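User: I'm new to structure prediction. If I give you an amino acid sequence, what do you actually give back? Let's try with this one:
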Amino acid sequence: MTLKNETVVRSINNDESNLCVDLFKRNNETFGYEEYRKDPESTSGWYRIGNYSNKIFLSINEAYQDALKKIIWLQNKR
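Assistant: Good question. You get back a string of structure tokens that encode the predicted 3D arrangement of the chain. For your 78 residues, that looks like this:
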């Protein structure tokens, strides 16, 4: 789901397991996140639905806190 210069640090799924947020670390020591969706009737797997991966954070916690503000379902997973 992420690019080669990113390593997923934490992946959080919603209760239905059809939405996911990946929190990742880049090779340049910055952090970010992205939201994905997977449709059960489709065989194409996960696809990006957010437009967050270009945001830059200095810590994983900063990325997570921003994701909580932007992704409504994630607020229920705390």
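You can read the tokens as a compact description of the fold. Here is one thing that stands out. The chain has one domain: 6-77.
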